[in-house]
Amino acid sequence: MLVRDVMTRPVVACAPGVRVEEALALLRRGRFRHLPVVEAGALVGIVSDRDLQPAAPETTLEELMHPPITVDSRTPIEQAAWLMEQNKIGSLPVVDDGELVGLVTSSDLFHVLVRLLGVLEPSSRLEARLERPTEQLAELTQVVAEHGAPLVSLITEPPDASGQRRVVVRLATIDPRPVVAELARRGIVVAELEGASS
């Protein structure tokens, strides 16, 4: 999934000379928290509600704006999330060929995470630790297929120091106990089992 699939557009932006009181009113009306600053069609900075709220009303955005860290619309969402985490920021302007085309925020990425994890679909959640990840992951998906339990999502964590991986699976079934029993028979113990949710 790429930034273009999740970014907010069109983007509301302001000129550097706009005063804080006007920018805050714009944020409140639009119910968003980040405001790109554009001059002569080019992105020159970005401000957030946290920059604006403590500032004097007559202060201009030019005095408060930060140099923008940007991505383009073809950037993978995981790269955008990494940039936000590394730089402790809540949004990234999306710039294609020098033009501001969107804005991707931490909220956009949280929505994607919830969707990818299958939390919005009625499902049962299984969590297991795989001692032989490659072999056991293949077994796990085979068991799921054999029981006709539709797979909603499957996520693995990076291996721990011993090489084991934790895997979280969501199945579109109210009663995953037959799957859990067969996994146990094959040496894959489900550490956590959460009933169907929606």
Tags for this entry?
single chain, 198 residues, alpha+beta, CBS-domain, Alpha-Beta Plaits, four-stranded antiparallel β-sheet, two-stranded antiparallel sheet, 8 strands
Summarize the structure.
By secondary structure, the chain is of the alpha+beta class. The protein has helices at residues 20-30, 49-52, 61-64, 77-87, 106-116, 133-146, 177-185, and strands spanning 34-39, 42-48, 91-96, 99-105, 123-130, 151-156, 165-171, 190-197.
Describe the structure.
The chain has 198 residues and is α+β, with helices and mostly antiparallel strands. The chain folds into 2 domains: 3-113, Roll (CBS-domain), CATH 3.10.580; 121-197, Alpha-Beta Plaits (2-Layer Sandwich). Helices cover 32% and strands 28% of the residues. The protein has 7 helices and 8 strands. The chain has helices at 20-30, 49-52, 61-64, 77-87, 106-116, 133-146, 177-185, and strands at 34-39, 42-48, 91-96, 99-105, 123-130, 151-156, 165-171, 190-197. The strands form 3 sheets. The protein has a 4-stranded antiparallel sheet, with helices on one face. It has a two-stranded antiparallel ribbon with strand order 1-2. The longest helix has 14 residues, at 133-146. It starts with 19 loop residues before the first helix and ends with a strand. The relative contact order is 0.14.
